[in-house]
Specification:
homodimer; 217 residues; five-stranded parallel beta sheet; 10 helices; elongated; DNA-binding
Chain lengths: 217, 217
DNA sequence: CTCCATATTGTCCTTCAGGACAATATCAAT
DNA sequence: ATTGATATTGTCCTGAAGGACAATATGGAG
């Protein structure tokens, strides 16, 4: 698989040349001359704050060169940019000055269908995602588990912004009954009103402020 | 770096043996006999729904064998489990029946300080994360942009559950003024009360139900 | 200078929320 | 058969929320 480096500087960094003996260098995508269907590895070298340039180029490569893959080389790797690059369809994102051995490894992974990322970005991704798919649902699930089935129904309706009267109509019970279930829910969850209930049931935000308030008289 | 496979089945799968000639197999972590400080690669083979077993083992390995790394092999790779494994400290998560060549690649990446994941999981991670770091903040930012600076302050206080009186004390203004800013905020954001305001400003939930309600008289 | 957006505060009024007392019916477990 | 948890509903009361009228001060744009 041929290696095509695209860099505004139009010259191969030393590590690139060391890693891939037969690498080509281009100043821009427009100058690239390879068969459309030849499987190539495009190494896109981006400066900071070139997200527009980046997404345009990635998109063009993926559209124009069907069998090719894109790896983004960043002078200053940054999480947001990595997310951007990967979101645009790149299969790798790494430091432009990585050792030759690392670049070869990146190529190995990507050319075999993998995606290559640095540890920093991955840990960031994982941390954020776990918060989303693990911590949060569990926190909410825990909270919901403290309620009886009927209380849960009522509480969830209140949490999306319905008034007692609306909930009553919807569940075909009296407004008084709605109040009863809500009062019980407040008690069980240790919150003082429907807004705090909504905060607990909608997201994780048992934040400091909320807890602090809950413990007050 | 030695390869230690830990599998409840207590025998090496063919692809494992092919990939690593000198691999060892153990039925459980307790039976492993290697020097505590020898750098090893632990391949944890998990069945579905063994998250407890998984996290316990990963934690024990990382605690007990300082120079070692953990890769999780799943019979049925699943996103939630991958997140769990990586969150617990594993550096790789892949299909237990991957080709020998892939396993060798995984080892290369991990032993060089990388993290190895399948494309599916990564795309999932990236998708979720982009949603989080791009879409959501913008939605909230858009909403906040509709408010004047002072209204914004007041609205945010209300969104975390403070009463008008509390906000008044905190910002050193009259309760009446708080009401004025809040009423203006409701108007501008098209919500009917502080709970819906909280839903808009705290999270994503410009969900159907909320919007539907907002458009009603 | 005038107009407009913003920030501040006032009073009066209506409605809603939530607590304080309740009571009654059902169903499962002991 | 009794007990306990759950679900339902009632009345009375207080306090908070939010709208309907406001007025006044400030500071920038035109």
């Amino acid at each position: 698989m041929r290696d095509l480096f695209i860099s505004p500087r139009n010259n191969l960094l030393e590590n690139w040349a060391t890693a891939f003996e037969h690498a080509s260098i281009y100043a821009s995508l427009a100058e690239v001359k390879v068969a459309k269907n030849e499987p190539c590895l495009f190494w896109l070298h981006v400066d900071a704050n070139s997200q527009q340039w980046l997404s345009t180029n990635v998109a063009q490569i993926l559209a124009g060169y069907g069998n090719s893959r894109v790896i983004v080389l960043a002078n200053v790797p940054e999480q947001a940019e990595a997310g951007f690059a990967l979101g645009a369809g790149a299969l790798g994102y790494c430091h432009a000055y990585s050792e030759a051995a690392v670049l070869q490894e990146v190529k190995a992974v990507v050319s075999h269908g993998g995606i290559w990322l640095g540890q920093d970005f991955l840990h960031y991704l994982i941390g954020v995602t776990r918060q989303l798919i693990t911590a949060q649902p569990n926190a909410v699930a825990d909270a919901l588990g403290l309620l009886t089935p009927r209380e849960r129904e009522v509480a969830q309706q209140a949490s999306i912004g319905l008034s007692n009267k609306e909930i009553a109509r919807k569940l075909d019970i009296t407004e008084r009954t709605v109040k009863a279930h809500l009062s019980a829910s407040f008690e069980r969850l240790g919150v003082k009103d429907r807004l705090q209930l909504a905060l607990v049931l909608n997201d994780k935000t048992l934040n400091d402020k909320t807890l602090e308030r809950q413990s007050l008289p």
